[in-house]
Amino acid sequence: MKGLSVLQPIKNKVIIQLDNTEKETVLDSGIVLTMKSKDEAQRAKVIAVGPDVEYVKVDDIVIPNWNAAEETKFEKEKYYIIKEDEIVMIIEE
User: Fold this and answer.
1) Which CA distances in Å does 56 have to 33, 85, 91?
2) Residue pair 89/58 in contact by the 8 Å Cβ criterion
3) H-run or E-run covering 23
4) Could you tell me the residue range of the domain that residue 28 belongs to?
5) Of 87, 14, 17, whose CA–CA distance to 50 is shortest?
């Protein structure tokens, strides 16, 4: 994800990208299940923040109001631009 410093939102805007990280669950029997999060489509990683953003920071995992997000593409990657107040929650892991 290097080189994204050219993406700089203005005011209270945040640039996010879908979070497709895999989760591991270890069963009592010792079996490890690896799967993508069932709420994968809801989670997003913060890529860049505007100067007026107060509560979220780069690399936070958030759940945004996807209806308020504007999709854009940059260097063949899909990103979403959203106002900070349209981020519903920050996930602390």
Assistant:
1) 31, 10, 11
2) no
3) strand 22-26
4) 4-91
5) 14
| Token pair belonging to 59 | 């690399």
* Structural domain total, the chain: 1
CATH of the domain at 13: 2.30.33.40
Q: What are phi and psi of 27, to 5 degrees?
A: -75, 165
CA torsion sign for 61, 49, 70, 66 is positive
φ/ψ bin of 75: left (φ > 0), alpha (ψ from -120 to 50), beta (otherwise):
left
Residue 34 pLDDT more than 60? yes
Distance of CA 7 to the CA centre of its chain: 15
Cβ distance 52 to 11 under 8 Å?
yes
pLDDT in tens, 38-71: 545 589 999 999 999 999 999 999 999 999 999 9
Pairwise CA distance, residues 91 & 61, whole Å:
5
